[in-house]
Give the backbone structure.
Amino acid sequence: MSKDTDVRIVAVDTATEQYAYRTPMKFGGRVVEGVILRNVTIEVETRGGHRGRGFGSMPVGNAWGWPSSAVSADETLAAMTRMGEHLVARVAEYKGWGHPLEITQDWADFYEAAAKDTVQELQVAEGMPKLAWLVVASPFEAAIHDAYGKALGQNSYNLLGQDFVNADLANFLSPEFAGEYLDAYTLRQPKQRMPLYHLVGALDPLTERDIPHRLNDGLPETLPEWILANGLTHLKIKLNGDDLNWDVQRVVSVDRIAEETQRERGCEAWVYSADFNERCRSVDYVLEFMAKVREQAPRGFERLQYIEQPTHRDLRAHMENRMHKAAAIKPVVIDESLVDYESLLLSRELGYSGVALKACKGHTEALLMAAAAQKFRLFLCVQDLTCPGYSFLHSASLAARVPTVAAIEGNARQYSPAANRGWDDAYSSMFRIQDGTVGTGVLTGPGLGFDPIPSSRF
């Protein structure tokens, strides 16, 4: 089957940008102090001769996508950066026509080969995991979805139905999706505003006592300062997962400080999420954590909205980590483990009750997992990879178009504000936070809904 709206690749190009973090960020036992962005440009042409130029951008994110005890962070960063260069040639060589959902499904066949070639070329002592190569490929996927919409002069989220896609969701997922298309699981207009989840990193100062030397760069530095400056109502708390007392006390302290600050500004309702970044040894740790938080801060426990990926990302190697008991108390969300539809099905079997969507795993996968999560009535959230600028707008556009997503994470404004410069002027409602929300209603343009700023080096 084919349609006049099908596209082919005309040109592809890529470049990188690098930024130092304002302050170090700790998660999953690792500390990150900077970011490399992979920027991608793709031009497409429809069967009718219309052309569109699309863009994609994403942090390389090796500390999250490829944590390793066998090779260094410098090696994983170099390999993921190099794989991005390899993908340019492979994408340029692709001669197929279709909808971006179908084209990226074809591309997925060469992601692993590109990863293996890169590892062999650089003589890395460990194979690149699937999550890492999805991160590398994600700006390419964003770029073609964006280019498709630009070529047709429409928003890409409104081009997901039977009139544009050549195959139904059963072709991408499983038979129970027969006759269904993504337009049934996405919105035709973005939500006007969405609450912003602010990150409380494991190294972040909670109060003035935690700051040895102030940065004095004009941005907030303590949790009360951030809450008051941005009107925050959603706090994501990074935990260690291997020190129960520290984790419990961190949540108790955040809750105490938030309660005092919210009272000061007259706010009566706010929530938390707890992210262990897969560091807990077992579900028993999670259950004990929740019991102790409930005992020491009962109101804080009630404010806990969900728990994110508490145990090891390799689900099949750790089938003993069943989340049923924990998920009966609070939603337990799969994140690092979610790399395809099979992993989502396995997570349900193991008791996970929610899904974290991330644009950095690929726009196509995010849309498909959003559909599956809604079909199976799973809790849904959208998180980022400390995404600045264009990549944050991409992540936000996804959250704003999936009906059951209630909030969005966005923490580059905390750690990488330099990478937001220019974007914050062009999309002030998205980057200058005053009432704890982002103004996603502006993301209505052709393609993914926004354009790169003129000074952006794509």
